Amino acid sequence: MQSLVFAPSHITGFFEIIDHPNPLIKGSRGAGVVLDQGVLTKVDVCEGNGELIIKTNGKTNDHNSPLESSVTYKTMDLLKNHFSDGIEWNNLKITIDHEINVPIESGFGASAGFALGTSIGLSKLLKLPLTFNQAAAVAHNAEVDLKTGLGDVIGSVVGGFPIRIEPGAPGQGKADKLLDGCDDRTNNEEGLFVISKSLGTIETASVLTDPAMASKLSSIARELLQKLLINPQVTHFMDLSLEFAQKTGLIDPEVMEIVDVLKDETLGASMAMLGKTAFAISDTPDSSVEGSMVARVDHCGCRIV
């Protein structure tokens, strides 16, 4: 038995951390954009002896090393714990094969893609008593437990330009999306583009576990979210995202240099949260930034394909 799940990447422009003892309520408020590039996960289940094989772009992963392996194992563990009675896990051989075409730990929400593909794919194949949102909530739970993300799962599920109004997993949190940009094919047959350039990684957990930084960025983001809801436009979202990056001090001179170039060529540019990555929203796929990645905005969200 096989299933195929596509989880589009989610870039966060700004976010407020909301802590809670319940991982399904813990999360973030903020806003972002979803790309038509991300993580495609193939799940294969057959008779076996409890073996679990995890691959990324064809390479078998070690349990103790890569991000994609750890978040996938965590998602599996949560499903096993929830359904330890109904499923004979020791009689199954499960292969989870992730294909990813965005950088890892660079602000593209890759870990959410690994978790979503695992949870939704397995839930469908094993006919677990979960709705789509409930399966996605397991992925959110894995992310929160590992401190790899707080809002990328619900962002990837919503698609377009998600606004996370209340924190939490799909089905628990409250999310909307920018109307501006939803019907972006009216004047441009190809829609809006996301242009990005990654210069390296930022470990998400290092920021999420720093109390002083968490307090600072949350107070700034709280005000920006209210401003976006008053004027929910794509260009305003990008302006607020850059304001967040600069006021928090998260953006460094290297990324800012690229952002300055992209600002002059697009509808707005900022830094992806959390990664050493510049991103911009554009009417065209053209950019003078060498080695930039170009994607379209994905309005459909995470889905079985």
UniProtKB/TrEMBL annotation:
Domain GHMP kinase N-terminal: residue ranges: 73-160
GO molecular function, one term: ATP binding
Database matches in PANTHER family: PANTOATE KINASE, PANTOATE KINASE-RELATED
Keyword terms, alphabetized: ATP-binding, Coenzyme A biosynthesis, Kinase, Nucleotide-binding, Transferase
One BP term from GO: coenzyme A biosynthetic process
Assigned protein family: Belongs to the GHMP kinase family. PoK subfamily.
Protein name as it appears in the record: Pantoate kinase
Entry-linked InterPro entries: GHMP_kinase_N_dom, PoK, Ribosomal_Su5_D2-typ_SF, Ribsml_uS5_D2-typ_fold_subgr
